[in-house]
Structures are given as C-alpha cells and as structure tokens.
Amino acid sequence: MTIKDKEERNYYYRNYYQKNKERYLGYIKKYHNSEKGKIREKEYLKEYMKRPEVVRRNKERWKIRESTPLRKIYRLNYMRKRRKDIKFRRKEYLYRRNKKDSNKNILEKERELNRNYYQKNKIKKRVYKLKWKYKNMNKVKSEKLAQRLIKIPKGKLCEICNINKAVHRHHEDYSQPLHVMFLCSTCHGKQHRKI
Ligand SMILES: [Zn+2]
Ligand SMILES: [Zn+2]
Questions:
Q1: What is the mean pLDDT of residues 154-174?
Q2: Which residues have their alpha-adjacent CB atom under 5 A from ion ligand 2?
Q3: Cα of 141 from ligand 1 centre, angstroms
Q4: How close is the Cα of 171 to the center of ligand 2, in Å?
Q5: If you average pLDDT over residues 48-71, what whole number do you get?
C-alpha cells in the first residue's frame, strides 16, 4: 500500500463514520447501559488488571510519571482549573486547617520534651559552657572586644559572596581582635568548617 492509498482509505472511513456517527454511538450507549454490558465490562476489567504483564507495565508507568517534573505541571494546571469551583476551594481550606492543627500538636509535644530535657541537664550544660569558655578564653575575649568596638556598616554586603547582607564578624586570627571580616551567616559557617 502506498501513502496515497492509505490517505484515501482513511478519508473514506472518516466520511463514513461521520455520516453514521449517531447510529454507532447509540449502539454503544445501549450496550453499556444494558446489564449484560455492565457485567461483562466489570469481569473483563478485573481479569485484565490482574494479568502479570499489565501489572508490571502499570508499575513502570507510575514510576516514570512520578519521577518526571511534567507530572507536577499537570497537577498544577489541574489544581488551577479546579480552584475556580467554590466547593473545591472550601475542601482545600478545610484540609489545610486540619493539617495546621496536627502540626501544632506535634510542635507542642516537641517543646515539652525539650523543656524536660533542659531541666534535667541544666547544671551539666552550665558546667560544660564554663569549661568551654575557660579553654577558649582567646576566642571569647576577642569576640567581645570586636562586638564592642567595631560596628557593622549599614548596607554592607558579605565579603565572600557579595550577595547577602553582612551580619557576623569573623576573626581569622584570634590574637588580633580588631582585624575582622564582615560575612553573612552561611559564608561564616562555611569558613569555620574549612578550618
Ligand atoms: Zn556570604
Ligand atoms: Zn568566625
């Protein structure tokens, strides 16, 4: 069969279908609405979904769908359409409120646990802090001096990344308390982890 023949055949079928569309659709509707059709469809679907080939194929499909970012875009578009309905918006609001309440309960439980832990180990912590201060007297003294004597200028950007605001003072040498770098918090953390 050449391409022209195929096109002609398709054109013929399309015309034939469009002429007799209503008759066909009527047959199909009748069959689906009859009890015979309903029972047969259900049985066929049950059998079909249990086939090992179909199960495997569906699993693979779901894996691919969940991993692709396209899935997210489809979902977002779907939600945008649905959000115009008032009923759906109401449902969403209730779902979010319930979630918030559950989160609050979890947070309160965590706070209680932390409070109990703190009160048990209050004295231990204070002793540990004092010991650390005594060992690192250099650090503490130079940090306090810098905090008193050096102000961070207004609108100063971080000296490493030049993007975020400078919030911290960083000492490279603790023996020179007035030599200080102005850094943002993330860069400061990185600088200390290097050494
Ligand atoms: Zn920075
Ligand atoms: Zn530092």
A1: 91
A2: 170
A3: 25
A4: 5
A5: 80
